[in-house]
Amino acid sequence: MSTITADHNGKPIVPNHPTIPFVEGDGVGSEVTRSMLRVVDEAVKRAYDERRSIRWKEVLAGKKAYDQTGEWLPKATMEAFRQYLIGIKGPLTTPIGDGIRSLNVALRQGLDLYVCLRPVRWFEGVVSPVKRPQDVDITVFRENTEDIYAGIEWDANTDKAKKFLCFLQEEMGVTKIRFPETSAFGVKPVSREGTERLIRAAARYTIETGRKHLTLVHKGNIMKFTEGGFKRWGYELIQREFAAELNNGTLIVNDCIADAFLQNALLKPEAYSVVATLNLNGDYISDMLAAQVGGIGISPGANINYTTGHAIFEATHGTAPDIAGKNMANPCSLILSATMLLDYIGWSEAARIIEKALAHCFTQGKATADLARFMPQGKPLSTSDFTQELLSHITL
Ligand code: ATP
Q1: Alpha-carbon distance 214 to 234, whole Å?
Q2: What is the 30 CA–ligand 1 centroid distance (Å)?
Q3: Order of strands across the sheet with 213-218?
Q4: What is the pLDDT of residue 103?
Q5: Whole-prediction pTM
Q6: Phi and psi dihedrals of 282, rounded to 5?
């Protein structure tokens, strides 16, 4: 058996030689994926000898899929991610005018991957715009399926906008729309179920990793029922399901208004450990935190359904067409996403080996050009030379 399955809590049950599907990705995808596969294989070998290994299975999505099958996201790819539970993918091009808004969104929706997980930490040697980037060690649980991202909106001056306006004014008694005739409208659905499953996952993660502090970030002072609901349902869930952990001090929960959080996270980032937040706040927060550690181009991410166990780990940058095929791309975002994957399947020894090797490279100023150019002793390396350098620290 080489298929990862999930137990009744959604926790992966992992054989010693699991099959893991990967999508190479478009643009720089093939370069960063090649690097990631070599690094992960080497680290797994170093950690477990021959006892464990990953059987990589390439599945198609994006341009490569379109060229070979005529489809941007073939059914077989969706099926593979469903069947093998866990996968990893490089960046994907967004097809223009093909009925698919975004392949990433289609994958997330298809598997109901309701958590966007973004851990943010600093690596010594990486140049950061703040004085103490080492104080940033924050994991963001961003809700992935609701909020203003639901895509329910109507452009100004359309029949649907007029119909919606009419409904608001005539049936709902709304009088506060400042310029009704020229307004576009968007709907922000936030549910108790959606909130609870996100905050439950964040609370469990906080307890299991010994991180203790969970902060609910919201704009409940202004949007009382959507963002305010998120806060209220969150606290109610914590009281109901985590009373023991609250009592024994393994879980401490507080909340913070989103704008204050952005300020605090810059001024005293050590006050935060795990953050749970809605979709739009999460978008801003994860990018700001990543910038704080100088890692906007190397930040990892994953989309996870903690109930079924399904997870797709991914490079958070785009396809970088300007440098594609030039052996210049930085593979670190995908490599660090792979370390998240290794942690997720419980192969943390291999994950730590990779992180140590990365730290070695960065402290010596060895990095791809995008990072090395800011390092005082920076030595810009090509993707393949940087990979080789990393491998040399892994096989030591
Ligand atoms: P897409 O349309 O796929 O989002 P994009 O070029 O608009 O592509 P990104 O791919 O995120 O957006 O690239 C933004 C900038 O960051 C580009 O200059 C690109 O070269 C650079 N960049 C992105 N990823 C990497 C990487 N892995 N290594 C080095 N530079 C990168």
Answers
A1: 11
A2: 14
A3: 55-58, 19-23, 86-89, 311-315, 300-304, 115-121, 137-143, 274-277, 213-218, 252-257
A4: 86
A5: 0.94
A6: -65, -35
Q: Does 205 participate in catalysis according to the annotation?
A: no
- The two structure tokens encoding residue 169: 């004014």
Full DSSP string of 266-286: HH-GGG-SEEEE-HHHHHHHH
To the query of whether residue 149 is one of the catalytic residues in this protein, the response is: yes
Q: How many residues does the chain have?
A: 396
Task: State the closest ligand 1 atom to the C-alpha of 320, by its place in the atom list counted from 1.
Answer: 10
* Cβ contact 296:161 at 8 Å: no
pLDDT in tens, 331-363: 999 999 999 999 999 999 999 999 999 999 999
Instruction: Verify whether residue 259 is a known catalytic residue.
Output: yes
Q: Greatest CA span in the chain, whole angstroms?
A: 73
Helical ranges in the chain per DSSP H: 29-48, 63-69, 75-84, 103-110, 159-166, 192-208, 227-241, 243-248, 258-267, 279-292, 332-344, 348-363, 369-372, 383-395
Do residues 15 and 29 lie in contact, with contact meaning Cβ atoms separated by under 8 Å? no
pLDDT digits (tens, 9 = 90+) for 77-87: 999 999 999 99
Residue of the CA atom closest to atom 12 of ligand 1: 318
Q: First and final CA of the chain: distance in angstroms?
A: 32
Catalytic residue among 188, 219, 231, 366: 219
pLDDT score of 1:
74
Burial track 207-241 (b if 16+ CB lie within 10 A, e otherwise)? beeebeebbbbbbbeeeeebbbbbbbbbeebbeee
CA distance 235 to 119: 23
Residues 106-123, mean pLDDT to the nearest whole number? 94
